Amino acid sequence: MGHMAAPAFTERLNEQIGNEFEAHQQYIAIATYYDALTMPQMAALFYQQAQEKRDHAMMMVQYLLDADHTPVIPAIAAPRFDFADVVEPVAAALEQEKRVTEQINDLTRIARENNDYASDQFMQWFIKEQVEEVSKMSDLLAVVTRSKDDYERIEDWVAREEKSAGADPTAPRIAGA
Q1: Are 41 and 155 in contact (CB under 8 A)?
Q2: What's the topology of domain 7-161?
Q3: Confidence label for 165 from pLDDT (cuts 50, 70 and 90)
């Protein structure tokens, strides 16, 4: 028997699972766009971002299971895969991360308004994570904008900057992992 999460929170967390899977699909679409342009570093970065979003969704699934709720996995919209240039996907990714940040903040607010301290605690990791995601995409957008006609320069920057951080021991449990 897990803790009883507030119904308003669990309802919104189910929606957020859909948002995270939507972000996952969008990042796969972006990764394949760069892969088709023979930009393996950019492709790898977005395949990795996609994996992170899937992990986030599955952390939320696990949280609902732990709180004795059966997760309801929502349908999601198709991703966008037509981009005018190498800048557009990163700009879209930054917008998406800003949107997810608002959604995470909203979930935290709902937990607090319902005195659901365990759910508030659960959301703290995602708040920290989103600060990093927005910062990372902002930096990437600056680089890609500056070098939009020089794919090699973009690839070199990503190769230098993108060092895998390794597992985060403070991360919530991923369902099925």
Answers
A1: yes
A2: Ferritin (1.20.1260)
A3: low
